[in-house]
Amino acid sequence: MKITIEKITNKAGDKQSIRLVYWYGSRTDENGKIKHDRKREQLDQYLFTNPKTKPEKQHNKETLQMVEAIKSKRIAEAAAGQHGFTDTNKLNANFYSYFKKVQETKKTQKSSSNYGVWECCFVMLKKYHPDESLTFEQITVDWLEGLRRFLDTQAKTKTGNLISKGTASSYFNKVRAVINDAFAKGIINKNPLQQVKVIKYEATERTYLTIEEVRALVKTDCRYDILKRAFLFSCLTGLRWSDINRLDWSQVSQLEGVHRITFNQQKTGTLQYLDITPQAFALMGSPATEGRVFYPLKYSAYMNVELLRWTTAAGITKHVTFHAGRHTFAVSLLSNGVDIYTVSKLMGHSEVKTTQIYADIIDSVRKDAMYKIPDIDL
User: Backbone phi, then psi, for 83, in 5-degree steps?
Assistant: First the structure.
């Protein structure tokens, strides 16, 4: 950390206020501009801008000596750990290295499938602050506020879309977890998170299709058969677009007469085993030993338009995206009595509370549950 003296001239131009500037390093934002991480301390001192009299010159001399003394004291305090760090070695500890250390612990914990989310969070962190020499000293309130704004309003997916509020909230919570861990272990003795708000998770409406609507799609022609088969496959398996797009015949096997897909989820990076039904297998086309199953399926705005055109032709008025297939799978299982824990495993969720979102939108299940209350002979 570096400390400098800054002088600010007033509007009248006759005096200068004084403040200390604490420099914590710099970073390059997504536009290539250098952003400095710093904070300021206003001192209750002033200088004459153009001292003319002997008293004014003496005042400036004594004030500057006092300010230099304060600056030296602040440098000593920082080295002694009075500005949030226990010693200079911890002060210069690399934040990214510590983040990866915490991330690695997720591989051996019960929520190991969450490891991939940590990795995605780390990638997004590097977009916000590309400089790999980032230290704990630089993790200030201003830095965290900047990260919060970046995740909440600027961070984008590989396809160029803004990440969802849920994803932004999840990523920011990962960073918070690392800082809290560092605070608990004495890496820092002042927690900057106390002054930074969380990113509130906002549940978004999830579009899904009823079984009747899926059957209508089966009967309706689609300009691209590969798109039709891939979307219906998602409805029957819950796989994301990214996993369907990457699905290879080498990942397909047969165990006791049942076809199984063994793959690493693109989003979380975790290994998943998924036994599929005969009708889902039929949608995969002619079996092969290797090669993409749904070749030459390719993500594009044009394909999204064709998906909407196809669903509209089937009489569906909902705004259907490819991800609606995954939602349809979850809602269909829950509506037909499959317990939420099993659905969570089939969806590849790391936590059951993620799957709970789907359970909350099934009105028919809630209504049926109410009518299961026994008659009390009123």
Answer: -115, 35
